[in-house]
Amino acid sequence: MSAAEAPPPDKGHGMKVFVTGGAGYVGSHCVKRIVAAGHQVTVYDNLSKGHMQAVDPKAEFVRGDLADADKLGKLLRDGRYDAVMHFAAALDVGESVREPLWYFRNNVVNTIGLLEQMKATDIKRIVFSSTCAIYGVPEDLPITEDLPKNPINPYGLTKLTMERAFATCAEAWGLGSTSLRYFNASGAAADGSIGQDYQPVLHLIPVVLQVPLGQRKAVSVFGTDYPTPDGSCVRDYIHVEDLAEAHLLALEAVKEGRTEAYNVGTGRGHSVLEVIAAARAVTGHNIPVELGARRPGDPPELYSDPQKLRDTLGWMPRYREIEAVIETAWRWHSAHPDGFGKA
Ligand SMILES: NC(=O)c1ccc[n+]([C@@H]2O[C@H](COP(=O)([O-])OP(=O)(O)OC[C@H]3O[C@@H](n4cnc5c(N)ncnc54)[C@H](O)[C@@H]3O)[C@@H](O)[C@H]2O)c1
């Protein structure tokens, strides 16, 4: 059997997994799932956006920055990890347009630093948080993995750059990588224990729920003249626990020397106005809207074809209705109106 075909470590004994950005929104939900499946996790996060309270108490937590090569190198040498899951990144599209060099530094240069340390310590498996932003304005819908990648903002370009770098490392030193291209991560843990607390509040569902929480008067809708059924932008809202399941499957399947990429979405699109209507139904609040002009750089419609992930890893999203996604988010935000800080 060649190195490229070597099986992942025996799942029964659990893997040792090093998780960057595991105190953030998606990372913390994935850590919870991976720990529950019997793997041993170390979270590495500088808490620039994440929260220590979000980290599963069964995981080890180390506060540190990706740019700190000495600290990272020592941890990876001492920890003898089987795999890395890499969530840590900057992810505000608008900010990436204003501050592209910071995005290249944190998402590209710092990821290269992580790969250098992985190579030095012979860790050859990585599961990477990629994004549907790599497709730009898609040529076709639903979006399949093989569509052209033409990111229209620096954020998407940084993620595509890393996906391509992984493939070169597979050739050169046998890196195995699985890039999960998320659509819009949404919702919160079904048990209400953790949820999203990203400052500033950017994502549509948390923004909408600020209205019933009394933290915002109305929701601005940017563009009502798109070529979509109701004129507002359409996105694919994937529940964060379905994302976590995809990460667990990817972790257990990633193979040295192989470069894989999967869309992670529901396969259905919902417009901004539909999301607001669903939030009205869930919260019982009338949630006023302010209709405004389009924002530059917003593709009209993005939704996935998740067939490859289903066929290859047997993944199925459990949250199929947007109301069910919003219910979990509402449970979290209404119990923690100030997020982790003052809960
Ligand atoms: N949220 C989404 O809808 C979405 C969609 C597609 C892709 N993604 C990707 O998923 C990943 C996680 O996103 P999220 O929504 O959980 O964001 P998040 O900001 O909540 O999580 C990112 C975490 O990384 C940490 N971090 C950032 N830079 C770091 C550094 N230099 N050193 C150490 N820690 C650092 C932050 O403190 C934070 O805890 C990101 O890579 C993002 O690009 C997110």
Helix-strand layout with pairing:
Elements: E1 16-20, H1 25-36, E2 40-45, E3 60-63, H2 69-79, E4 83-86, H3 93-98, H4 100-120, E5 125-131, H5 154-173, E6 176-182, E7 184-186, H6 204-209, E8 219-222, E9 234-235, E10 237-239, H7 240-253, E11 259-264, E12 270-271, H8 272-283, E13 289-292, H9 307-313, H10 322-335
Parallel strand pairs: 1-2, 1-4, 2-3, 4-5, 5-6, 6-11, 7-10, 8-13
Antiparallel strand pairs: 9-12
The structure holds nicotinamide-adenine-dinucleotide.
CATH fold-level label of the largest domain: Rossmann fold
Query: Could you give me the name of the CATH homologous superfamily of the largest domain?
Result: NAD(P)-binding Rossmann-like Domain
Termini, distance in Å? 52 Å
Bound molecules: nicotinamide-adenine-dinucleotide
Q: CATH first level of the largest domain: which class? A: Alpha Beta
Q: Which H/E pattern describes the elements?
A: EHEEHEHHEHEEHEEEHEEHEHH
Tally the helices: what do you get? Answer: 10
Kindly estimate the percentage of residues that lie in beta strands according to DSSP: 15-25%
Low-confidence stretches: 1-10
Decide which structural class fits the backbone.
alpha/beta
Mean of pLDDT = 95
Could you say how many structural domains there are in total?
Answer: 2
What Rg is obtained from the alpha carbons, in whole angstroms? 19 Å
